[in-house]
Structures are given as structure tokens and as C-alpha cells.
Amino acid sequence: MRSYRRAMTADRPRRSALFMPASNPRAIARARTLPCDVIILDLEDAVAPEMKAAARAAAVETVAGGGFGHRELVIRINALDSQWAADDLAAVAAANPDAVLIPKVSDATTLVRARAGLGDGGPPLWAMIETARAIVDLAAIVGVAGAARLRALVAGTNDLAAELRCRPGDDRAPLLPALGHIVLLARAAGIAALDGVCNALDDPERLARECEQGRAWGFDGKTLIHPGQIDAANRAFAPAAADVAWADAVIAAFADPAETRGAIRIDGRMVERLHLGEALRIVAVAAAIGKAST
To answer: What does each C-alpha distance from 242 to 126, 245, 247 come to in angstroms?
Structure first.
């Protein structure tokens, strides 16, 4: 993994990433007031073929209009092998959102093509990991993270489950090996990892369990399909008060010029200097969340 070019992103919160059809102007207007961290304007699955051009124009207009405050604004284009991809790439390159989400990324070549289509100075990439081949070739995909300016992996659990012919229950057991692999390779590349969507719109307990599971497995946040899911994701993926207190203690301990040891004891636990980076990340994310909520 040491051969990968590091592509560390800013320690900004990505607890909740809400998909919204770019063809729905009322939904987009409401998005400017929602407490999510990321808005993903969708040109792919949520848009009918006859609405693709209108949705693309609406997404460009939305980016130009601004007004999203702290929220990251991402556009998911259509798959690169689709008839709409060339026009999508040209439009979003000019619009320059915070990132462009590329669906169906099954190999490194897809990212190279997307980067070429957007230009070196264009917006950074996020990649949907939603095929069996993507899981198998994920090391090669994140291997081009630096050159392609890849900033996040997004688990496409619906497509992945369909391709695997598995039936994830409440525990999502059939998908856990793939989800763990996505987190592992995202961390190896120094980029963000977002969990897949929860389809159970009327089951808040299941949503809460999936969010807690995603947090436990190391994801930075969760992709969502309804505004009603935002609060659960924000709660689950925000640093807990105990985590922030631990991080503050670690930072303070290693900031002491007299402290030269590589491992110290804090609140009955052994902490090594290698934990300092995680402590700094936790404090930065907590501070960003606090700033966004004021």
C-alpha cells in the first residue's frame, strides 16, 4: 500500500450525503435548508431518459446559483459508457461543483477517462463502487487516486447486492466483506468512504442500525435517499463527546515539550503517538460540525 499516492482530503464532515434528482427544482430549493453535509445532484438513476438533458441543465444552474452554505455539492453523472456521458462531463467541468460522482467504476481506466473528460483543473472525483469487478480490482482503482484526484469511495449497495444475487437482511451480512474492503482501500489511499443507502424509508430502527454498523466498520458517513434519514446519519457519524474528550487529551499530552515517549497512558489506556493523527481528525470534524450548526 505504500506505493499509493496519498490523496488526503480535508477533515470535513460527510456524515450525511443526500441523493436528490437534479430534475426536481422544488427538492433542490429545499436542499439549501437541510442539515445534511453533502447534496448529490443525481443525473443517473433518479432521472428518466427523456429528462436527462433538462436535469443536466438544472444541475449546472443549481451549482451556479449557490446558496448551499457548508454543504458539499456533488453531481452524479451518467455512466461513462452511456449516451449522455460526454455531455455530462462537459457540463459539469464548466459548472465546477465540489466533486463529480462517477457511477459504475469497475476499473482504474474509468477514472482515468473521467479525469481526462473533466480536465486536470476540473472538479475532483468520487467513485461509486457497485460491481463485483470493482471490489476485485479496488486496489488498482485507488492506485490512481492521486493522478485522478479521487477523493471518496461510495458503496453502491443496491447494485452490488443485485449483481451478487445476495439478499441482505437487517445485518447486511452478505455485503460486509465488500463494505470492509471499501473502507480498507479508502484508508490505504487516504480518501473518504461513504456507506450505501438504506431503502427502508418507514423503518427508523433499521436505518439507525445501518448507520451504527457503518460507523463501526469505519465509514465516514452514509448516502441517503430521503431527507427524513438525515438526522439518524448525523447522530451516528458525529464524534461522540467521549471521543472528543479523548482526542483533546491525546493532543494535549503530546503537545507537552517534555513528553518524548512514543506511548503514554491516558485514562487507563495506552496511547501511542500514531494515535495523534486520529485525535486531530476527530477534533477537526467536531469543530466543523459545530461551526455548521451555528
So the answer is: 31, 5, 9
Residues in the chain: 294
Pick left, alpha or beta for residue 224 (phi over 0 → left; psi -120 to 50 → alpha; otherwise beta).
Answer: beta
Task: Fill in the amino acid letter for 184.
Answer: L
Sort 53 into a burial class: Cβ within 10 Å, 0-12 / 13-18 / 19+.
middle
Tell me 275's DSSP state. G
Alpha carbons 277 and 261: distance in angstroms, whole number = 16
Do the beta carbons of residue 56 and residue 88 sit within 8 Å? Answer: yes
Within 13 A of 25's CA, how many CA atoms are on the CB side?
6
For residue 89, how many C-alpha atoms fall within 13 Å in the half-sphere facing its CB? 21
Identify the pLDDT of residue 84.
Answer: 97
Quote the cell numbers at residue 100.
463529480
pTM over 0.90: yes
Name beta bridge partners: 19. Answer: 40
Distance CA 10, CA 16 (A): 16
Classify domain 16-237 at the CATH class level. Answer: alpha beta
Spans of all domains in the chain = 16-237, 241-292
Strand partners, 224: 18
CA triplet 29, 56, 150: central angle to 5 degrees?
A: 95
- In this predicted structure, the answer to whether residue 3 has a pLDDT above a threshold of 50 is no
Chain segment 85-135, per-residue pLDDT in tens:
999 999 999 999 999 999 999 999 999 999 999 999 999 999 999 999 999
